[in-house]
Amino acid sequence: MAAPVESPVLARPNIGEELTIGHPEVSDGVACWRIAEATGVLDLNSRYAYLLWCRDFAATSVVARHGGDVIGFVTGFRRPEVPSTLVVWQVGVDAAARGRGVAAAMLDALFDRVPGVDHLEATVTPDNTGSIALFNRFAERRGAPVHRGELFGAELLGNGHAPEILFRIGPVGR
Where would I find the N-acetyltransferase domain in this sequence (predicted)? Predict the structure, then answer.
């Protein structure tokens, strides 16, 4: 398999240093798992799941690196019934890099490198203000409408999980 193509992301307003954003390698799954675990808010999958994700969904996922270390990730996939829709599964950023535009840079880079997509979907719990702002700002930057509605209710998710609100953004301009 060819090495992932990485592109530099030059300084954005909230990023003080240069990041490199590229598709993940299998070994990046461990760092993604650690970041997800450390957030304390993401639904944590097994380490095995992150390794598989970095292998099987690398083309629709990205990692952000600083100094060679993975400091963030976005996992995604094309919706099987609607392949023009990129579904964002998880966004995670290392605590030391939060609040500096890393998540926004990764989301933009991912959407721009997945060919043939014109919509983005993600689910967010109502109390996750950071993710709500992230997806709303993505829509604003792209001049795209946002449609929101409950996808899965708390009764389906169980164990006190809050409902998941679907954010469907698009059509998205490039």
Answer: 19-169
Q: H helices of the chain, where?
A: 28-39, 47-56, 102-113, 129-142, 154-157
CATH number of 50's domain? 3.40.630.30
How far, in Å, CA of 98 to CA of 100, rounded?
Answer: 6
**106 and 152 part of one domain:** no
Radius of gyration in angstroms for the set of CA atoms belonging to the chain, rounded to a whole number? 15
Work out the burial of residue 18: count CB atoms within 10 Å of its CB; fewer than 13 is exposed, 13-18 middle, 19 or more buried.
Answer: exposed
- Cβ proximity of 22 and 63 under 8 Å: yes
What is the per-residue pLDDT across 99-156, written as a single tens digit (0 to 9) for each?
999 999 999 999 999 999 999 999 999 999 999 999 999 999 999 999 999 999 999 9
Neighbouring C-beta atoms of residue 102, cutoff 10 Å: 25
Query: Is 96 in the same domain as 129?
Result: no
- 150 token code pair: 């409950």
* Separation of alpha carbons 168 and 149, rounded Å: 9
Token output for 125: 């719990």
